[in-house]
Specification:
This protein has about 550 residues and is an all-alpha fold. The protein contains 21 helices and two strands. Helices cover about 60% and strands about 0% of the residues. It is found in: Membrane.
């Protein structure tokens, strides 16, 4: 009996191609849950709160507002005050906090914990419990907006907190206003070490060029033209820019959430009302507020055109170009937001057929917009393209929140303990490039997933930015907002929300309000005072606030 001949084994090239397709997620559907399955689920809006819950919401709102006021008052002595031109120095009453550092640190830390606790309590009326299911009742959008506004107002009039970066902004803006190149020379060299603006810049940044894009320094030059060397006025106008960015986040986030089938209230609670936003974008005055705000607003406008049913021409095409323009503008503040344009392009290519021609057409259209906006801002601002050479300035800092940096520091410490020497620099030269390749691969896979329709562009953008942030050589707490805010509009599973809520709460509490370090004994004293004060407050409000778990969710 003759046997049928066996099929020839696939060639090495065929096996390699198959492996690459599977790695990129284009070779059929896997039986394993996808990223979208693990992180995303539809979340419908829920009815409003009942009478008892509305009363509790009122007390939660006042509890958080009291914490914000304590933070603002404590910042008069424990905040990131300027070395010169401190407006409260020498005043009889307002200058008192500066003469009581331990007390004001305790006050600021107590207020910080109160705001975080209020945010967590508010979450029960926004997302319910973290055990799955859906919220039985939710606070309304207007209730959440009023709560957020009430908590933000005290921080808008407080001195800078948690960071001294705003003083670098002011110095770099002054350099730009003098017609010098901020991408070639740092504040000390351009302004002099004794200049009023240089004196408050942290020592590590006094000699370094600006790491920010030309749009931000262009706006900073306008602020300098108005305020001159007046530090307080400059801080106020920079905070207005940050508030404008937060306003764009509040505008775009619920719209993107509805586009993803997610409750707008839960997205705003986790994204815009997050303590990291209030403490670092508002109180800390970081330019991430403008970057993220412009990026999200651009994504919303672009997806409104791409995901609509009308042909992409005329008004719809203008809407797409406007969205792409906003994204490109955000990248001229900080470059990572340009990634959003790639996901918009993949969504556009999918609508046009998801083939090579569609991909090339989408890339050409959005590429022209991105290049045109970047060149225009660089030339019109007079700053040129030198900003592309200083993007790695921040990598001088070794951050424990960065996975590759933490691995390098840990390996170096082990080597020292074993008597093998400190090889931290050598290990970092390996871990950081490997981490960059991993982040690039995750981003590429997410781009392909959008093209083939396996994940929504907003979710893919958030996952990619999350990978980039965690695998970046330097991670500051507010960098996490690059990923947390877009993911708040898409990721609803506990596997995302629980760690995000926990990390946001812990990091918001442990950072010092002056953006630097205190003596250990002062931190211990303030921590003990904060713990005792918060325990007393919880005891006194045990009948007013929902400290005990309540039934806030129902099975899906």
């Amino acid at each position: 009996m003759e046997h049928e001949s066996e099929a020839p084994a696939p060639s090495r090239a065929a096996r390699t191609a198959t492996f690459a397709k599977r790695a990129l997620g284009v070779e059929g559907r896997s039986h394993r849950p996808s990223v979208s399955d693990r992180l995303h689920g539809d979340e419908p809006e829920a009815p409003g709160l009942d009478g008892r819950e509305t009363r509790q919401l009122h007390w939660i709102r006042l509890f958080g507002a009291t914490g914000a006021v304590l933070m603002a008052v404590g910042a008069l002595g424990a905040g990131a005050q300027p070395v010169l031109q401190n407006p409260v120095q020498g005043l009889r009453i307002l200058g008192l906090p500066a003469r009581m550092p331990s007390a004001t640190l305790s006050m600021a830390m107590t207020g910080t914990v109160m705001v975080v606790l209020a945010w967590l309590l508010l979450g029960r009326f926004a997302v319910g419990s973290m055990r799955g299911g859906r919220a039985i009742r939710q606070l309304s959008r207007s209730q959440l907006d009023r709560t957020l506004l009430l908590w933000v107002i005290p921080l808008t009039v407080a001195p800078p907190m948690f960071s001294r970066d705003v003083y670098s902004y002011l110095a770099q803006s002054e350099i730009t206003a003098r017609g010098l190149d901020p991408y070639e020379i740092g504040p000390a060299g351009a302004l002099g070490v004794d200049h009023v603006l240089t004196r408050t810049v942290p020592n590590i940044w006094r000699e370094t060029p600006a790491p920010y894009g030309p749009l931000f320094l262009w706006m900073g030059r306008g602020i300098t033209a108005i305020t001159g060397d007046n530090i307080v006025a400059g801080i106020f106008l920079h905070r207005l820019l940050a508030l404008a960015g937060v306003a764009m986040i509040v505008w775009a986030l619920p719209r993107l959430a509805r586009r993803c089938g997610v409750s707008s209230v839960s997205a705003l609670w986790l994204g815009a009302a997050n303590p990291l936003v209030m403490f670092h974008l508002v109180a800390g005055i970081h330019n991430e507020a403008l970057m993220i705000g412009l990026m999200l607003a651009g994504v919303e406008l672009a997806l409104r055109a791409v995901e609509g049913t009308d042909p992409i021409r005329g008004r719809v095409l203008l809407l797409l170009v406007a969205g792409a323009t906003l994204i490109a503008l955000s990248s001229t503040i900080k470059i990572p937001s340009l990634l959003a344009l790639g996901f918009v392009g993949m969504a556009l290519a999918r609508r046009w057929g998801a083939n090579l021609k569609a991909l090339a057409s989408a890339a050409a259209l959005l590429g022209v917009v991105a290049i045109g906006v970047t060149v225009f801002v660089s030339v019109a601002s007079g700053l040129g393209m030198g900003w592309t050479q200083t993007l790695g300035t921040a990598t001088e800092v070794r951050s424990w929140m960065s996975i590759p940096t933490l691995l390098g520091l840990g390996s170096g410490l082990v080597g020292v303990l074993l008597g093998l020497g400190d090889h931290t620099t050598a290990v970092l030269s390996l871990t950081r490039p490997i981490a960059s390749l991993v982040a690039a691969f995750i981003t590429l896979r997410m781009l392909v997933a959008v093209l083939v329709g396996r994940i929504h562009p907003v979710g893919a953008l958030g996952v990619s930015l999350g990978a980039i942030v965690l695998l970046f050589p330097v991670v500051q707490p507010w960098y996490l907002l690059w990923a947390v805010i877009p993911l708040a509009a898409w990721a609803t599973r506990p596997v995302f929300r629980v760690p995000t809520i926990a990390f946001s709460s812990v990091v918001s509490i442990i950072l010092m309000p002056n953006g630097a370090e205190y003596q250990p004994f002062m931190i211990v004293q303030a921590a003990i005072a904060t713990a005792l004060a918060c325990l007393a407050i919880i005891f006194l409000t045990r009948h007013l606030l929902p400290w005990h778990a309540q039934q806030t969710t129902a099975p899906v």
